[in-house]
Design brief:
The complex is a heterodimer. By secondary structure, chain A is α+β, with helices and mostly antiparallel strands. In chain A, about 60% of the residues lie in helices and about 15% in strands. Chain A has a 3-stranded antiparallel sheet. Chain B is mainly α. In chain B, about 75% of the residues lie in helices and about 0% in strands. In chain B, α3 packs antiparallel against α4, α3 packs antiparallel against α10 and α8 runs antiparallel to α9. The longest helix of chain B has 28 residues. Classes of the chains: A alpha+beta, B mainly alpha.
Chain lengths: ~110, ~240
């Protein structure tokens, strides 16, 4: 087995699930977002989103806070530093697998 | 040769299609403008500013009431200028967040996504955008100077086109809608036929921009409210 192929086996299973990957992608791109925004962006049902957020929170990837904006209650979610790093590592591993041999130099050059 | 062309095409394709992260970031940034409140607040501020100046210029004799109207218009302008973010946020809390949720996009200067942006030539693109914005500001500034100093009626089409072109170019970023662009062109056409006196050029120009923004914001808000009713069930 090549090291590149072995990288697939070490993919983070918490992030690898499609719904959680969507949630992580949205949260990685923003500072914070509330439950309703995430639900609309990912196209998930309330129950589905709740359960996936709970799993991400248990893994320490997502921080969930209840807060008020004026009188409007919000369930605000944001990525923790651990979650951010885990997502970046996950993307890098996938990139290694998906980049063609001649594109590798460009990727490693871009990484600096 | 064929390999080279294919590689270039693949490179072009990967640069043309943004990653899901960039897509999400852009949507979060455009979310601020989606409901029209940002345009409405800026429009109200500019409207107050131009109205107070226009009122001063039109009134040859200063009365108590003319001073009061000017003062109110000026207060509206200053309020929208100094408390822009708070006012827009206050409106969003009541209308936007219950409908489509709350998101805080990353600030423009910071770029925490560099690691994942290797597919897009971010630095060259940013440089190009910066150069383009500077050139655009220069063109708008110069055209506004000509506009306020020249009595020719042909300054109006220049004014209309100068504001419609950047508005058209920025439409994908969600900054302007076709409503504002059409409005600027329509007003320019009307004032080319019936030009106002040169003393009022500046105020009428700013008033036109403000009405365009108000119109744009109001239409956006109406469409947004219509498309996004408040969800019935509790969200969390």
């Amino acid at each position: 087995m090549t090291p590149d192929l072995q990288a697939l086996a070490t993919l983070d299973r918490v992030i690898h699930e499609p719904a959680r990957l969507m949630i992580m992608t949205v949260l990685y791109a923003v500072n914070e977002a509330d439950f309703l925004y995430l639900q609309r962006e990912c196209g998930l049902t309330q129950g589905n989103l709740s359960s996936h957020l709970a799993k991400l929170e248990t893994a320490g990837y997502v921080l969930i806070e209840k807060m008020f904006k004026g009188k409007y209650p919000l369930t605000v979610c944001s990525l923790t530093q651990k979650g951010r790093t885990a997502f970046e590592e996950y993307v890098q591993k996938l990139r290694v697998v998906s980049t063609p041999p001649n594109g590798k130099a460009a990727v490693s050059k871009a990484r600096g | 040769m064929t390999h080279e062309i294919r590689n270039r095409l693949q490179e072009h394709d990967s640069q043309a299609s943004p990653t899901p992260v960039l897509d999400a970031k852009n949507r979060a940034r455009q979310y601020w403008l989606a409901d029209g409140f940002a345009s409405l607040v800026v429009g109200v501020g500019l409207f107050g500013f131009s109205l107070s100046n226009l009122f001063e210029n039109l009134q040859h004799r200063h009365t108590f009431w003319s001073a009061i109207v000017s003062l109110i218009a000026l207060a509206i302008y200053l309020l929208s200028l100094l408390r822009y973010r708070e006012i827009v946020e206050w409106l969003k809390i009541r209308v936007t967040y219950p409908r489509t949720g709350y998101v805080q996009a990353p600030p423009g200067g910071e770029n925490p996504l560099l690691l994942l942006e290797t597919r897009t030539p971010s630095s060259s693109r940013e440089k190009m955008i910066r150069r383009f914005s500077s050139a655009l500001l220069l063109v708008i500034g110069s055209s506004f100077f000509i506009f306020t100093t020249s009595a020719s009626r042909w300054v109006w089409p220049i004014f209309g086109v100068t504001y419609a072109i950047p508005a058209w170019l920025c439409r994908k970023e969600g900054l302007f809608s076709p409503i504002a662009i059409s409005f600027y062109l329509l007003i320019a056409a009307i004032f080319t036929v019936f030009p106002p006196p040169i003393a009022l050029h500046r105020d009428v120009g700013i008033l036109t921009i403000s009405i365009g923004m108000l119109l744009d914001g109001a239409v956006r808000l109406l469409l947004y409210v219509r498309r996004n009713p408040i969800p019935k069930a509790p969200t969390a």
